[in-house]
Specification:
Blueprint (H helix, E strand, L loop, with lengths): L11 H25 L4 H29 L2 H4 L5 H31 L11 H35 L2
Helix pairs in contact: 1-2, 1-5, 2-4, 4-5
Length: about 160
């Protein structure tokens, strides 16, 4: 099953999610710079909502693909105990990221009203949730890339 575009025996959606993980973390850095350095709250909000929507769509399609493909273990070339531990660590971060990001965006949507969001009473909590979400998505990206490498790249290279 090699219908992905990265050249390994992974699905198309697995490759899409891997690329999105590589792209999301730098875009989050850009978004944080927009708000911290340039005080561009409107563009920060738009970028966060866009990233959230893109990730939600990519992860939803990925989950559907996993179900149709028989699951990760059907595709992976590494069924070791270490891979199981790595995958469960990745899943912990991935699931908590969805929750944190949903809470962060949801509260921001309700508390930063109008076309021009500006700092207010909610800013302190929003900043903390934002940093937690950023750390969590970064851990998701790092562990996800490791899962991809050990599940699909390393076994091919070692053959």
């Amino acid at each position: 099953m090699a219908d992905g575009f990265l050249g390994y025996e992974a699905s198309l959606m697995l490759d899409v999610v891997v690329v999105s993980l590589v792209v999301v973390v730098p875009l989050l850095g850009l978004s944080l710079g927009l708000v911290r350095v340039r005080k561009n709250y409107r563009l920060h909000r738009r970028l966060q909502v866009l990233l959230g929507a893109i990730l939600l769509i990519a992860v939803t399609l990925f989950e559907i693909d996993m179900r149709l493909s028989g699951g990760f273990w059907q595709m992976s070339k590494d069924d070791s105990t270490g891979m199981h531990v790595l995958l469960y660590c990745h899943l912990f971060f991935a699931i908590s990221t969805v929750g944190l990001w949903a809470v962060t965006l949801g509260l921001a949507h309700r508390r930063f009203l109008g076309d021009d969001p500006v700092p207010g009473d909610h800013s302190r909590l929003h900043r903390r949730l934002g940093w937690l979400s950023t750390l969590d998505i970064t851990a998701t990206a790092v562990t996800g890339l490791l899962v991809y490498y050990y599940g699909f790249v390393a076994p091919v290279a070692g053959s």
